[in-house]
Amino acid sequence: MKARRNATRPLARATRRVVAFLVLAAAATGTSATPCPPPPVAAMVVTAGDAGVDRDRWLDALAARRVVVIGEAHDRYEQHLVQLAVICGLRERGLDVAVGLEAFQQPFQAVLDDYVAGRIDLRTALARSEYYERWRFDHRLYAPILEYARSQRLPLVALNVPVEITRKVGRGGIESLDARERAAIPVHIPAPSEAYRARLAAILDLHPDPGGRDPDRFVQVQSLWDEGMAERAVRHLADNPRSTLVVIAGVGHVGYEGAIPDRIRRRGQPSVATVISADALEHQASADYVFEVEPLEAPRGGLLGVMVRVDGSRVLVDAFSDDSAARDAGLLPGDRLVSVQGRPVSRFADVRLALLDTVPGDEAALEVERDRPQSPPMRMAVRFFLR
After folding, report:
1. What's the CA gap between 66 and 165, in Å, rounded?
2. How far is Cα of residue 330 from the mean position of the Cα atoms in its chain?
3. CATH number where 339 lies
4. How many degrees, rounded to 5, is the angle at CA 47 between CA 44 and CA 52?
5. 60 half-sphere exposure, CB direction, 13 A CA radius
6. Residue 130 CB coordination number (10 Å)
7. Do residues 105 and 247 share a domain?
8. Same domain as 72, residue 208
9. Distance separating alpha carbons of residues 259 and 51, to the nearest angstrom
10. What pLDDT score does 295 carry?
11. Using N-to-C axis directions, what is the helix angle for 163-172 and 215-239, rounded to 10°?
């Protein structure tokens, strides 16, 4: 039975299975890989009408499935720690675990393979996978999972459909794709159900597009995302018959009719368990297991305190945060960032990658170019402490 919010009864009384997690303060101690990090959460399972199921019994139940699909809010660090606890728990039970990630797009599978094999480091993997152009969420949110997978040589599977394709479908529909692009997506994408369409229509109503986004094409894009990730997951399972796959994707791709789990089942893999956060119940999501977890901030990186805009290959200072160290060091709107930490900068991702391992208090070294009326641009070196 799927878990749903019941407006007439308290959460603990709803007829569903619940996994409740309390995050321990020790979870924030960093992201260094270990053979199996201590579980960052303590688990309690509540089942209506049955005795409670503790963390080990819950993980035993998940271990009996070929696929565990965990829905997430991408920017919630504590949810990623729950995902890590599941991955580690399944690994401790002797399973050949692989991790499928919405955060990486399918053409970059070889990059993830090289990272897991130890041939490249995380900075190189993020750069080659174009992570900060295609996903953009702080990599520190996913770092514990990525580093644990590397330490255990667990395959990382790039699930997502290339953004070039989804954008093109959003503009012109599936029929606008050329033969090469069609070959990169599932051959058959079933027509979505009325419930699937209705849910997406409600999203458009809540977030209207000033440009007049076509509702049918919006549905096509979502269907392509769900089907493309499900197809890639099933292909991994077919190629790796002993593998247990943990799929990590946004809850919108997990907790609803016609999302990734249903499509995996339709493709002949019925052994699927779904897990979501209790927060998602407020949006009518459902799953086999629901967890509650206290908010926890990811380890902070060092910040320049600037907002940038990109003009061709020029990265320009556009504005400053309220507590901007860069502004206090003398930078002005319109200044061009030539290099950060000695690394050339020509796109937004270059700035993020240059600051990858920094923390507040580290020294920033910038080369900045400033235009001057009727004079050649002036270049200057600027140093200050990140905040």
Report:
1. 29
2. 35
3. 2.30.42.10
4. 45
5. 6
6. 17
7. yes
8. yes
9. 31
10. 84
11. 150
Asked whether 124 and 131 are in contact (CB, 8 A), the reply is no
Does residue 315 share a domain with residue 216?
A: no
Sheet holding 156-160, edge to edge: 53-54, 41-47, 17-23, 289-292, 272-277, 67-72, 243-250, 96-105, 156-160
What is the pairing mode between strands 67-72 and 272-277?
parallel
- In the DSSP assignment, the letter for residue 347 is S
Whole-model pTM: value is 0.87
For position 17, what pLDDT does the model report? 35
Using DSSP's 3-state secondary structure scheme, residue 236 falls into: helix
Q: What domain range is 355 assigned to?
A: 306-385
* Nearest Cα residue to 331 out of 358, 369, 302, 359: 369
Residues 221 and 278 in one domain: yes
40, 25 contact by CB (below 8 A)? no
- Which pair of structure tokens corresponds to residue 361? 């208090």
Please report where in the chains the tokens 């419930």 appear, as a residue: 195
CB 302 within 8 A of CB 358: yes
Last residue of a domain, one of 258, 292, 326: 292
| Stretches in the chain below the pLDDT threshold 70 | 1-53, 207-212
Nearest by Cα to 277 from 63, 76, 99? 76
Torsion angles phi and psi, residue 136, rounded to 5: 80, -20
Cβ-contact 98, 68 below 8 angstroms: no
Helices 77-92 and 143-152 cross at an angle (nearest 10°) of: 20
Which burial class, exposed, middle or buried, applies to 88 when counting CB atoms under 10 A from its CB (0-12, 13-18, 19+)? buried
Q: What pLDDT, in 10s, does the model give residues 44-84?
A: 443 322 445 677 888 899 999 999 999 999 999 989 998 99
- Phi first, then psi, for residue 275 (nearest 5°) are -140, 130
In single-letter form, the type of residue at position 242 comes to R
Per the listing, tokens 């990186």 go with: 301
Count the neighbouring beta carbons within 10 Å of the beta carbon of residue 225. 22
How many of the other CB atoms lie within 10 Å of CB of 303?
A: 18
Helices 143-152 and 109-116 cross at an angle (nearest 10°) of 60
221-269 pLDDT, tens per residue? 999 999 999 999 999 999 999 999 999 999 999 999 999 999 999 999 9
E strand residue ranges, 155-218: 156-160
Q: Could you give the C-alpha distances from 274 to 42, 66, 256, 277, in angstroms and in order?
A: 19, 11, 10, 11
For 271-307, give the DSSP string.
-EEEEEEGGGGGGT--BSEEEE----PPPPPP---EE
